[in-house]
Design brief:
Blueprint: E1 4-14, E2 19-24, E3 37-44, E4 47-54, E5 64-69, H1 77-80, E6 88-96, E7 109-115, H2 120-125, H3 129-134, E8 137-144, H4 151-159, E9 173-179, H5 190-195, H6 198-203, E10 212-218, H7 220-232, E11 246-250
Parallel strand pairs: 7-8, 7-10, 8-9, 10-11
Antiparallel strand pairs: 1-2, 1-6, 2-5, 3-4, 3-6
The protein binds adenosine-2'-5'-diphosphate (A2P).
């Protein structure tokens, strides 16, 4: 099996000077679990230049959605941000990842903690019916620098109420946003909101290792800082081989 297939860009949206999203064709044979990532990129000087990208669309969708940062001097994203409808894009043959239901034990509340483009895998998970079958409450936190950076997540969440598969259960989802560099009803890093107790006060109580499950996706530092707090509450990390109470991922793209 070839490592990559060539797909077509179906649409591109620029959300801010730092963020864009795009949709590609999906090979009929390409299967993935909600929350997984895949290698994605462009041919550059005759060679594949690829990075790991979380798939933001649900697994039943005909196309594949991705949400990306733009790094001016990033080898891939400096080029990728110029893609247009109809362009060719390389898609890895196989998806992998730890932000999957298989790596979590059953529970009552599911916290999906994200910053920036770290919301991408959760955009898939919140549109997966299994999420609402497994959990009574789903709390998606998204912290960004500025309000415009929240728009992608706000649009995905708003679309849930008309979603044929999860629409009726969308009331189980709480979208919990905060900003760090612009005025907003809720200010501060998610770690600060945990430390002050505000996150727990707003969502029904402190983390309970027996009932709460957590997925974490953001920068390396954000993941480390959130992981330390979740572990301090007594939750143990899970994996595909050994499901646990929380899982982490890194937003790899640069
Ligand atoms: P801050 O503005 O205080 O750096 P970025 O766009 O740099 O990836 O950041 C996205 C969001 O993640 C920002 O609101 C940023 O806050 C926040 N953030 C950055 N580092 C951490 C961290 N170590 N723990 C929690 N949140 C973080």
């Amino acid at each position: 099996m070839a490592a990559f297939t060539e797909q077509r860009v179906l649409a591109v949206r620029h959300w801010t000077s730092r963020l864009f999203s795009f949709r590609t064709t999906r090979p009929a044979s390409f299967r993935f679990r909600s929350g997984e990532f895949v290698m994605l990129g462009l041919m550059v000087d005759g060679k594949p230049l690829v990075r790991a990208y979380s798939i933001a669309s649900p697994s039943w969708d005909d196309g594949l959605d991705f949400f990306s940062i733009k790094v001016a001097d990033g080898p891939l994203t400096s080029r990728l941000q110029a893609i247009e409808e109809g362009d060719a894009i390389l898609l890895g043959a196989k998806s992998v990842g730890t932000l999957v239901h298989d790596a979590l034990l059953p529970g009552k509340r599911l916290f999906l903690l994200s910053t920036g483009t770290g919301i991408a895998p959760f955009a898939s998970i919140i549109r997966d019916p299994e999420t609402y079958e497994r959990f009574d409450e789903v709390i998606l936190t998204h912290t960004c620098r500025e309000a415009a950076e929240l728009a992608y997540g706000e649009e995905v969440v708003a679309s849930l109420k008309d979603d044929p598969l999860v629409g009726e259960r969308a009331h189980k989802l709480t979208h919990y946003t905060s900003l760090t560099r612009e005025a907003h009803p809720r200010m501060g890093r998610i770690t600060a909101l945990m430390d002050s107790g505000q996150l727990w006060a707003d969502t029904g109580g402190p983390l309970d290792p027996a009932a709460d499950r957590v997925m974490i996706c953001g920068s390396l530092e954000m993941i480390e800082d959130c992981k330390a707090r979740v572990e301090a509450a007594g939750l143990e990390e899970g994996s595909n081989a050994r499901p646990g109470a929380f899982v982490v991922e890194k937003a790899f793209v640069g």
